[in-house]
Amino acid sequence: MKEIITNNFEETQKLGEDLAKTLQGGEVVCLEGDLGSGKTTFTQGLLKGLGVEGPYTSPTFLVMKEYKPHPDPLLKKERRIMNIYHIDAYRVGPDDILALGWEEIIANPKNIVIVEWSDRIQKILPKNCMNIKFEWLDENRREIKID
Ligand SMILES: Nc1ncnc2c1ncn2[C@@H]1O[C@H](COP(=O)(O)OP(=O)(O)O)[C@@H](O)[C@H]1O
Ligand SMILES: [Mg+2]
Fold first, then answer.
1. Strand partners, 112
2. Sign of CA dihedral 80, 81, 83, 87
3. Helices 9-20 and 39-49 meet at what angle, rounded to 10?
4. Of 47, 34, 58, 19, nearest to 133 (Cα)?
5. 2-146 — its CATH code?
6. Which residues line ligand 1 (CB under 6 A)?
7. Which of 14, 41, 145 to mutate to test the pocket of ligand 1 (most atoms within 8 A of CB)?
8. pTM above 0.90?
9. Which ligand 1 atom is the nearest neighbour of the CA of 140?
10. What is the pLDDT along the chain (147 residues), one digit of tens a residue?
11. Shortest-distance atom of ligand 1 to CA 8
């Protein structure tokens, strides 16, 4: 468990960018925390670190958004991570997410799945889900716990 306090949104993005470098493919990254606690900000850093080019529009009116990492011409071997899914489960339940092809998506080792409000779909989360909790401390500070 790692506990970090960030002092501005850039630090939270940087944390996401750093974590992205450790991902191999096949991970489900679960983000918990209230509105405004920094889940989307962190996700933007993750996407950047995974080589997705912005702008990263928020999936507020979309339950799931799919991204492709930009192919890096300097990389000799094919990039292992091919698809990145950003899910916002705030207004939905497990059945809605299952209907998107969830089981197949999380089973593919070429995918990274990022879930905001993962607690809303607790019962369909894999056991090896990476858990990250966000807490609002004040205007500019957030506490981020990475399991
Ligand atoms: N340390 C910080 N980390 C993340 N966001 C911060 C921080 N300080 C201020 N903010 C602001 O808080 C808001 C976080 O919103 P967002 O990332 O959309 O949260 P969530 O997705 O959890 O609802 C943004 O407007 C961001 O600029
Ligand atoms: Mg959000």
1. 84
2. positive
3. 40
4. 34
5. 3.40.50.300
6. 6-9, 11-12, 33, 35-41, 116, 134, 140-142
7. 41
8. yes
9. 8
10. 899 999 999 999 999 999 999 999 999 999 999 999 999 999 999 999 999 988 887 656 789 999 999 876 665 555 589 999 999 999 999 999 999 999 999 999 999 999 999 999 999 999 999 999 999 999 999 999 999
11. 1
88 burial type by CB count under 10 A (0-12 exposed, 13-18 middle, 19+ buried) = buried
Within 8 A by CB and 6+ apart from 131, the residues are: 30, 32, 118, 146, 147
Task: Please state the domain extents for the chain.
Answer: 2-146
